[in-house]
Amino acid sequence: MPGTLSTKRYKILVPTDFTKVSDVAVEHAKTVGAHLGAEVYLLHVVPRREEVEEARRRLTIAVERATDPGSSLKIHKLVRVGSIYDDVADAAAEIDASLIIMGTHGMRGMQFITGSRALRLVGSSEVPFIVVQERGIKPSGYDNIVVPLDLHRETRQKLALVAAMAGTFKSKVHVVVPRESDEFLVQQLNNHIKFARQFLGERGIDHDTTILDADSREFVDGILAYAGKVDADLITIMNLSQGNIFGVLGVPYEQELLANDQHIPVMLVNPRETTTGSGWSFQ
Question: Residue 236's domain spans which residues?
């Protein structure tokens, strides 16, 4: 039976700074929320208590704009005083959020969350993040999901969340690994592919597996080229130790992936003790 998201009441948190990219994040949340029967919470963080009333006023307008006539989707507003790095994680824990969807202004953006700062924020929360730029979401959701598997053992953990999302949106999952020449590394990657095929196959998820022409040093470029080829709607990656998604590749590559020129949304999952959590599960 396909992996699907459980029937619990899902809550999606959307940090907003009232810019265009935040509006895109809200649209993603509305579409995902409609598929899940979830509630959406718009969060704005201000540095001083004197700004709370103005923030509430702007959030009220944002909720009214986001509410479609006849829609049963509930959209709430939250205002917090403090730092976005602390209060997004706290607000997510407070409402028991299942997912956080936020906008990034890219590597050269200055207003809200840029690539490197997004990694810092993601690392502060146990809830999965979807980071979007200015690319909208299809009414059907995420039809094609690209899942890179690197040489880290933890990289397999994201498959549980991917399978759950793919079951909900009837997505096709594209598993990609780098090409390596070292025999030991080749065996490790082959084990990852075998695991992914079995895991997704047992859950009835439409999927394929591809060994890219790129090796580990060029893996990010290879991922993005492949994602463009299959018209990917989402790329799912792990946020590994010390904020370093691909380990040997370094922070600039992480920013490049989050702020990719194709504006493909990226879902980041923090590693944990088990492969399930944050309210995402299988039926």
Answer: 144-269
